[in-house]
Amino acid sequence: SIHFVATRLRALRTQHNLTQQELAELAGTSEKFLQQIESCRKKQIWLSTVGALAEALGLKVDEFLAQDLPEKKKLPRR
Asked: At what angle do helices 31-38 and 2-15 cross, to 10 degrees?
């Protein structure tokens, strides 16, 4: 659900000490878009978007969507 994605995204972003702007740049999206996801104002999110966010955090989609929070991994080059 969007609530799960929002909660997971915020947790992973803070785990990596990233601002919304920094993560947006890594994921190739806008800060406003990330704000909308994290605040659950988006009604739906494409799997490709989840993939881009996961990749920006050094994860595969299945790791991002796993029940347990994945271990902190080294981020791809900025």
From this structure: 120
Helix (H, G, I), strand (E, B) or coil at 15: helix
Per-residue pLDDT of the chain (78 residues; tens, 9 = 90+): 889 999 999 999 999 999 999 999 999 999 999 999 999 998 889 999 999 999 999 999 999 999 887 676 666 665
Give the other-Cβ count within 10 Å of 78's Cβ.
Answer: 8
Q: What is the CA radius of gyration of the chain?
A: 11
Please answer whether residues 33 and 41 qualify as being in contact, where contact means their C-beta atoms are separated by less than 8 angstroms. Answer: no
Alpha-carbon distance of 8 to 62, in angstroms, equals: 12
Helix (H, G, I), strand (E, B) or coil at 21: helix
